[in-house]
Amino acid sequence: GLRKSFGKAEIIRGIDLSIGKGERHAVIGPNGAGKSTLFNLITARFAPTSGTVKLHGKDLAGLQPFQINRMGLSRSFQITNIFPAMSVFENVRCALLWSHGYKY
Q1: What is the pLDDT of residue 77?
Q2: Which positions of the chain have pLDDT values less than 50?
């Protein structure tokens, strides 16, 4: 029953989705279909108008992105920030260490 409206414009209209451990799903659709809004809801970047998003049975409402990340859910954006002087392995290692709470 996940819904998201911006004013009178209802963007997400009652999504019900359950993804099991190890499963992969794709979200496809034309520009303006609500794909980014759905991902923003799933990752708690946006609060839903109604409904809930749960990870391991816990409601994500009110949690900070770093808390959600430490629970095992992360997202990437199309615009990436990498350390150009470091190898691919070192860049990935930094991301992994951050996900486990380590700081530079």
Answers
A1: 74
A2: none
* This model's pTM is above 0.85: no
Q: Classify 46 as helix, strand or coil.
A: coil
Residue-by-residue DSSP string for the chain: -EEEEETTEEEEEEE-----TT--------TTSSHHHHHHHHTTSS--SBS--EETTEE-TT--HHHHHHTT-----SS----TTS-HHHHHHHHHHHHTT---
CA 59 – CA 55 distance, rounded (Å): 7
Residue 104 lies in a domain: no
Check residue 104 and give its pLDDT: 65
Q: Range of 39's domain? A: 2-99
The enclosing domain of 73 has a CATH number of 3.40.50.300
